[in-house]
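User: I'm putting together a teaching handout on how multi-component assemblies are represented. Below are the sequence lines for each component of a complex, exactly as they appear in our records. Could you produce the 3D structure of the whole assembly as structure tokens, so the students can see both representations side by side? Please keep the chain order the same as the input.
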Amino acid sequence: MIVFDQVSKRYPGSHDALIDVSFTINDGEMVYVTGHSGAGKSTLLKLIAAIERPTSGAVIINQQNIAKLKSANLPFVRRKIGMVFQDHKLLFDRNCYHNVALPLAINGITGAEAGKRIRAALDKVGLLNKEKAMPITLSGGEQQRLAIARAVVSRPSILIADEPTGHLDRNYADDIMQLFSAFQQVGVTVIVATHDALGKTTPKNKVLQLQQGRLVPLEVSA
Amino acid sequence: MNIWITQHLQAMKQVLHRSSINAMHTFLISLVIGVTLALPVLGYVAINNLGDLTGKADKEAQISIFLRQDASEAAKSALRQLLEGNPAIKSMEFVSKEKALEQLEDSFADATLIESLQHNPLPDAFQIIPQTLEMDQLRTLQTELESMEGVQEVVLDTDWLNRLNSFILLAKQILWLITGLFALLLVTVISNTVRMQIMAQREEIEVSQLIGATAAFTRRPFLYLGGLYGLFGGILAIIIAAVVVYIFNQSIAPLTAAYQTNFSLNYPTLKVLVATCAVASVIGLLSAYFTASKFINKSMR
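Assistant: Of course. Below is the structure of the complete assembly, with chains in the same order as your input.
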């Protein structure tokens, strides 16, 4: 479970990125975070991923308050969360297989066990035949899927994606969103930030709409 | 524990792999370290040889034992027996006051000066050559001799020995100073190299930290890198030093032959090799630790 209780975040020398945000996300939920760029979506995701800490308020992830954790303990929280970054953050000096291997190496998993998991993750995103390919040779959609494979390879209970369909055309974007739905169906909490109009969103999914750092009631667009 | 070992092996494998890909670069950096370390190693070898020289020199210390004017014949022979039985004494010679006077007469051109003396003012003496050249042991021996029956004064003739010892002491101090400076140079070289490697892997470090790598995990490969540079550098330093010693010995061979001695520099021993590699690795490790920590703390808020 993820709980935000009156969370504010201010970057030094900057405006408030988030102001007094409170919400709860239950295990296995699929949640969209929407809003214009600069509304605080990325900040919200970074707080959930324990990459940033709130300036005030409590961020509770799996019963741990991130605000109160020591810096040295943050990496262990991050490991339980799969993150798909806005700019992928793939490593272009190594092939697909070794990109996906990185989170496992951080968790101390190597060898045959790692190989099994890496191939399973690549298979899930449809890149099993590309394991030896360098990321630079992949298309935009494939790079996005590789980033997803890396995010899920250590089997996190929470999967976060920042604008995963931002640069993709409609078909690719639908593929990616279906992939996230598939993860949610097997029990993973999925949180996706998007500035797209939520055309195909099913009503059962929760939506967190941000406007200038504040959570606002969802406007149902025509 | 298992994970800890796995991660260490992983880091080591990663560094060895990277180093072997950039073998030429690794070799050049190690060579810089090797040359830097070779100079103190050579200094150590040279000073050690000099130290050996004082041990086996054909020069010897001399102790003169002057007896009291009123020492009895019995006391003299008792003393002679004591000296002969003392294992610290290599050889001894009794110089009677008459003989000493003769020697004194010989050294003066004008014998009448000596003849004008009413009586022989010189004491009987023993001239002894001790086994040792160690200053401390000589002092102990001197004290021991002074306490003996019938002994007036014990004079230690150690001027040349003092000079040599203080020269070696000075050389050792200079060597320490130089070693310190070169260690500083080593810290700079390794820190800089590690920093360059960190810059080359900046993206990997950033991503790793974002997905849960601890500071220790991020730092570990760089520690191995620093240690490895030190180790390779240490080995190269000994090889360089050995080559220099070989060339030196070759070129002084005609000279020593002319002087009919067989002086040559000793090669660095296994002990020196191990010590050099250990010191260099530790310096490499520490330099890498501080460089990497500084970067990691900055990149991780």
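A couple of points students might notice: The radius of gyration of chain A is 17 Å. The mean pLDDT of chain A is 88.
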